[in-house]
Amino acid sequence: MSLATRYRPQNFEDLVGQLAAAQSLKNALDFKKIGHAYLFHGARGVGKTTMARILAKALNCVNGPTSTICNICEHCVEISEGRSTDVIEIDAASNRGIDNIRELRAQAVFAPMKSRYKVYIIDEVHMLTVESFNALLKTLEEPPHHVVFILATTELHKIPETIASRCQVFTFKKFNAREIAGRLAHILEKEQIAFEKDALLPIAERGEGSLRDAISLLDQTLAFSGQDSLTIQAVRASLDILPIEVYNQFVAGLRTGDLHALLNAIHELTQGGANLRVFLKDLLAYLRALVLVGEKVEVHSLSKEDAAQIAERAAEWDRHALIRVFQQLFKLNQDFSQMLSAKSSELKMALEIALVDLVQKLKEPSVSQLVQKIERLKNAIETGKGFEDTVAVAAPAAQPVAAKPVAANPVAANPVAAAVPAAPAAASGEDHHDTGAFLQKAFLAEEVPVNPETQKMFGG
Fold first, then answer.
1. DSSP percent split of the chain into helix, strand, coil, nearest 5
2. If you average pLDDT over every residue of the chain, what do you get?
3. Which residues pair with 149 in a beta bridge?
4. CATH fold group of domain 244-363
């Protein structure tokens, strides 16, 4: 039996994370405010079907309806083992036709054989056809008093409003990495398997909010390591997770523009059998951590050692450049998701060309650098000092050269930055906040000749 099946929660107290839904249902049971239809929606592996079975046991327990399930009476045991004749689980993906719903309606009118309630659990209910939803509508609105419907779906937007409005709707959130790691630690302790604490976070992160997926990955990793113990090395080898040092070096290559090192790293990864889709996805997670840590935001999926390393790397980056890198690679990841039939060699080519383009773009000035340059230009114009970014030698500040007035023919003006008036008095009557005038002066400070073409740019 798999770990996910063996450690499936059997009562409300065992549930992890879904406190709002669990508390609402417990209160409804305690105060005997039982609804006739419930709709559970959320991502895969977050406990929708598990909650439905727990609710079915709470309704039919010998002590019920109760929020305190005994799990030892005949009804609870049969429901837990999936053999209760009064709890009917239907997979809507394979029973989606109108004939299936007609059969359900015909059977629903009969009283339960030995339980208090007849419970219909319809999983992936969004897969039903439009005709099936219409056939279910009347029964869902006014079911027999002994019938309770529990609908579960991963795609709430596909459920007709007429159906959703007749149900009590509960949202099941994804689990965070800490919650998943805590549950995995609980399972390993029950199994009496030694483990390294840092080995659980990568598994939890790879589960992407799904507890069931994370437990399945734990099962896979234990099979790989021989189940004697769980180490971080075994987790990385089993799940094809690269050490954080690989991402440190790769991102350092991006920062320094070392294209040769980047392409060589991609070559070594592919030669080593690494999955480039997984690598790019993990690289994006690393870049996200860099951005958040740089903004002093705690990233729960990182160990203390990894967080310290990433904080050092984040301090080396310009924030705007780092976000530009993330956005560019995120677009590539979206392209990868559409290239389902692409070979690894094709993915490699796409990644290499994207890196070449990215390195070239990083060499271009960022928005923050351009803003700083404009500020320096403005300061140079207002103070009469030379602009530091130009190679030309500006006139000494102690001996400013008088400016020649630019009248009807602006081309005749001296374009050299040294001829720009140094004293602020020369700017009397001018508005330095006027964009056209300011940019024209900036153009002069850059030693670009004023001609009809450039004058036209500034509205002259």
1. 55, 5, 35
2. 83
3. 37, 120
4. Zinc Finger, Delta Prime; domain 3 (1.20.272)
